[in-house]
Every structure is written in structure tokens, then in C-alpha cells.
Amino acid sequence: MTARLRAVLAATTILALFPAGAAMAQTSAAAAPSSTSVDATPLLAPWGGPYGGVPPWDKVTPAMFPAAFPVAMAELRRDVLKIRDDTRPATFQTVIEPMELAGDTMDRVESMWGVYSSNLATKEVQAIDREWSPKLSAFYDELYLDPKLFARVKAAYDSRASQKLDPKQLRLLERTYRSFVRRGALLTDAQRAQVSQLNQALSVAYNAFSEKVLADEETWIVVDDAKQLAGLPDSFVASLKAAADERKLPGKWAIVNTRSSVAPVLTYATDRALREKVWRAFVNRGDNGGANDTNATIAEILKLRQQRAKLLGFQNHAWYRMDDTMAETPANAMSLMMRVWPAAVARVHQEVADMQALANQSGAKITIEPWDYRFYAEKVRKAKYDLDESEVKPYLQLDNILQGALYAAGRLYDLEFKENTGQIPVFDPAVRTFVVTDKRDGHNVGVFYFDAYARSGKRSGAWATAYRRQQELGGHRNVLASNNNNFVKGAPGQPTLISLDDATTLFHEFGHAIHSFLQNVKYPGLAGTPRDFVEYPSQVNENWLLTRDVLDRYAKHYQTGAPMPQALVDKIEKSSTFNQGFDTVEYLSSAIVDMKLHDRDTPVTDVDAFERETLAQLGMPKEMVMRHRLPQFNHLFSSDAYSAGYYSYLWSETMDADTWAAFTETGNVWDKATADRFRTVLLSTGNETDRKQAYRAFRGRDPDVNALFKRRGFPVQ
């Protein structure tokens, strides 16, 4: 069974926002290339080379995919029909196991296609994706809504008690049956056809949404007067000049419309008019009334989702998406969010009062607006804690912080990373690679790919994924895992310095990679975890960034080589709860609006009005906006991935804060016994057991939400 299908059937979420038509660049009328004369052999062949085989990026071109897809589809179809038409009694061994092993070629093709559509989305790639996403959706529906195949699955399920299955086999069989039902296996022929039509229409809409957002993110604001850049760090100004030079704008500076470029301007630029201009361009991505406006696309997605949920027997899309999660129901997710929301809003009002007072004292005759928040927050941080983020950045050189993440993984989990960049193919010259070894016995765990920098055609944000996942069924398979970021590369000849927030993101995404490398399951169908668990290991990993051992070794000043002084670390830690109102409300408003948008029986048609009215009902502070406004919310509308699921980060952080407490309670955050228990009970077991039960086995109880309140500096309840 292909990785993509396992994700659909199991209702789990892979480690990244990795949609079936992942982010595109600008809308284009370009036609997909003809496949009639293209030799797709390099793409279809089993991967060769070291480490169990690696993707042949040096031999593959986008034009091969239209030729490869039909071949891979035909192979998968043969595999599935052989299972369907088997005349032996339907059992775990005759149905479920062969399904787990079906579709190796499709796995490889779609793995590489995901990188092209997410990291290398040229106009040629966009055109191919527009053509093939609905075709692939229809193909999977054709196979897995086949009544004869479901009859085999059901027969195996119905006889499960007599098959003497072990607990993992029984869990996989029961989950496979349930996932077929959830996909529509019990519907009539006409209803199944309708579900397939809806899935195809959704894949088209997801592509359209992604194209439009990326098109807006590939715009930029030109600055031609250096005075407008006052307050910005020299290294960042140099990167803006490099961005302008790349766009053939000599003597100017270019602020690209992505978070990594916008956030420093909003934080440091003293030119208030520039801050407002940059802020408005950024928050209005997809909401511009022009060709890239996404509001109508979102309304169509919501209508299609509701129709599908009803057909599948669910009250609405939120209930459909939460059918296989730890939270279980929309109400449970909302309960946690609304428990945190009032404290977060109250903190924002305090933060705004502090900023307004400081602005008044400085003689600035302004009222704090959203484009002022980050700027004056930094001034308050300086005044309250004598901490300026520009003091921190010189100690956070990208390469060093990456090495710090590798070091922590080695110390905690016995993973060793040895760089082998240049020895295996990569999809871009800037991608670095590392061989991963288990230090306990020396066996190869896999390869880690690190794609750090923003580029044209690469979707925004940061994500992790895997080109091949571990499994033991059918023979051991090692892991090929990747991290993808959008850091702003330093000017030529200069190191890339990142913010503390960027460094935290690096550790976060690397936590996903660790989760992949530590996986130890037999059946790939028990690998993926529920969506509201998937962010948990990555959020836990963030905690080791500011440990003294990591800082002493890797947070070294890029000019002097001196480690970050303890006095500066003390300031960071003392200010750790600073601006938590902003951070929490920015995220939580997006998560609450997501759930309210999908937990309703009548689809929203006026998306802007819904967003505006919902935030007003919540009491959203006027001085800030959602982290992801609906018109640009890729998590929700470039796939199903996090739709009715953005709450997952808070759900996972509740477990994360409680898990970090388990380490700190030992008196040693590197405590090996705790790390080993975390590894064996939670990180390596995939979804072999219920994740709530697994957490209880690790901690001895359910997670304590007060650990989250303490971390954010909110009153303990």
C-alpha cells in the first residue's frame, strides 16, 4: 500500500504539510509536457546507490513524471487486483500483509514528485500537477472503493477472532477495515462515485489555492532609499540587497513577501510607513481581489468538504477529520483552546499597555497598530529585560545551530550524523546530506537531507518529510528523511545568521526527523500517528536548544568565536514568558477559527466576513491578526492535512510541556533513563498502540495542562 494511500486510509497526518498538489508558484496556462517521447526509466527504476538506495535526483526531470505515473499506477493496480481476486480465504496474511507491500514504484515516484511540487515548483511542475492531481485522486478511489476489494477486507475482519493474531496484527486489521469504511466502502455504487468526484474536485481546488498563495508570496516590495532600512541589522540588509540583485534590481533592496523576510522588518525597521506597507502586503496574501484572491476557492473547498462529510456519514468536516485523533471530538479540542484563550487575551492587553506607555514616553504620537506590535515589543523587551534580539543573532550561525541539533540527538538517542554532502544526488546544490548511524551497534539508520534556504518555487514555511520510511515487513528499510526551511541566506561571503525563533524552528523540524529515524515498526500501516500527536515529538525537541551544553558548543559568536555568555542566556530565560500573549493569541485565533469554520453544518460562503465576525465574537485584540489568515492558510486549504486540526499544535504542546517536566524533574535534562523511556515507549512505536495509552505508560498519567500554563507564564488553573 503506498504511503499516500496509508495516510488517507488511516486518517493520519504525515510529518509535513505535504498535499497531493503541494504548493505551486504562479498561475500559468502552460500545458503539461507530452509523455509520449520521454524515457521515464530513471524515475521508475528501484533506487540504486548506497544506504539502501537513494533518490536519483541527478537523473530525473519533471518531464518524466507524466510518463511515469501511468506505469506506476498500472503496477499498483496489478498488486491490488491480485489481492482482490485471490481465491484463498481472506485473512490477515492473504489480504492485509500484501496490501502493506503493494505499490513500491508508486511510493518512489510520489515521494520524488512531492519534492518537485513543494520545493521546485517551476511552471512546468505546476502544469503537471494541475493535470495529474485529480487523475491520481480518481485512481486511488477506483482501487480502494472497489466493492470486491472491500469484501476481502471485511471477510478478513469478520474472521479476526479465529486467526490467532498478535495485538499489532489485530490493531492493523481493525484499523484497515475502519479506514475503508471511513473512505466510503459501505456506500452504494452511486454514492461511491459521488465521493470520488468530490475528491477529484477538491484536489483541483487545493492546487488552485496553493498556486494563488505562492504567487502572492513570490512578489516583493522594492526599497530604493537606504534611509528606509534604518534599524535593520546589517546582515539582514545585505540579504535584502542580494535578493534585489537576484531580481535584477541593482542599487535597490527587495523585501520578499514571505515570513522570513517580513518578520525582521516588522521587528526592527524604524520607518513606520515601511512597516505598514510590508505588513499589509503580507497579511493580504490571497485576499487582494485580483487573480490571486482565494476567497472563492475556499468557499468551494468548504462546500465540497461538507458534501463529502455528509455522504460519508459524518455531521460535518470537523467530525470527519477528528474521527481518528487523540482529541476525538471537536468539542474536546475546543475545550482545551478555550481554556487557554482568556488568559492569552488578557496577557495581550497587558503587553499592548506596556507598548503604548513606552511609545508615549518616547514622544511617538501613535496608537499601537498591528504593524507596530513586534517593533514596540522589542523595545519593551529591551526596557524590561535589557535584551535586544539583535544581541542574540550573532551567536546563532545556521551551520552551528544545525550541528547543535545533531549533537543533542546523539546524546539523547545515540544517533550519529556524518556529513556526506556531494557524495549522493540532491535536488538542489544547496541541499546538504548526512549519513545517520546508530552508535550502539553501528548499523545504518538512513540519510538526513537538509534544505535550508528560500528559493523561487519553494513553498513558504518549514516542514519535514521522508522519502522512505522505516519498516520491517518484507525486509528492513532504512529512513531517508528531510527538513525544509526558508531561511534568508547570508550575503555572498557572509555567514547565515538566524533569529532565536528560526533556531527554535530548526530544532522543531529536526524533532520530526528524529521521530522518523527512531521509528521501529514492522507494519508500515502502524507507522503514522494521529494528527494531534504528530507535532508532539518535534515540540519536545525544541527544549534542548537553550541548554547550556548546546549553547557552549554551538552558540558561538560568528566573529569572535566566544560562546553565548551566561548573562545573555539569563536574559533570554528571564524573558521566556515575554510576549506569550501575542504568540499564543496569534496561533490560537487561527486554530479556533479553523475549528469553527469546519464544525458547522452550513458551509461558509463569505470567508472574509466569517473571519471578521468570528474574531469579533472571540474578542480578538485589534492590535494583532491571526498567524494565518484564512485567505493564505495553507495548512487548511492546500490539502486536508490540518483542516479542523490546527488545534493539534496546542494539544501536542500540552504533552510537550509535561514531557519536558519529566526531564527537568530528574535534575538533568539529559537524563538517559528518561530519554530511553521516551524513545522506546513513544518515539519508536509509531501507532502500534493507542497514543493516549502510550503517553500514560510513559508518564504514569495523562498530561498535566498546568505545565503548559507555567511555561507560558499564565496563571495556573
Automatic annotation (TrEMBL):
Q: Which Pfam families match?
A: Peptidase_M3
Q: Where is the signal peptide?
A: 1-25
State the source organism's domain of life.
Answer: Bacteria
Residue ranges annotated for the Peptidase M3A/M3B catalytic domain, each copy included: 265-712
Q: Which cofactor does it need?
A: Zn(2+)
- Alphabetically ordered keywords of this record: Hydrolase, Metal-binding, Metalloprotease, Protease, Signal, Zinc
State which Enzyme Commission number(s) the record gives: 3.4.24.-
Keyword set includes Protease: yes
Matching InterPro entries, A to Z? M3A_DCP, MetalloPept_cat_dom_sf, Neurolysin/TOP_dom2, Neurolysin/TOP_N, Pept_M3A_M3B, Pept_M3A_M3B_dom
GO molecular function: any one?
Answer: hydrolase activity
Please share the entry's free-text remark on the cofactor: Binds 1 zinc ion.
Please verify whether the record's keywords include Signal.
yes
Q: Which PANTHER family does the UniProt record give? A: DIPEPTIDYL CARBOXYPEPTIDASE
The family classification in the record reads: Belongs to the peptidase M3 family.
User: What is the protein's given name?
Assistant: M3 family metallopeptidase
From which lineage does this chain's organism come?
Bacteria, Pseudomonadati, Pseudomonadota, Alphaproteobacteria, Sphingomonadales
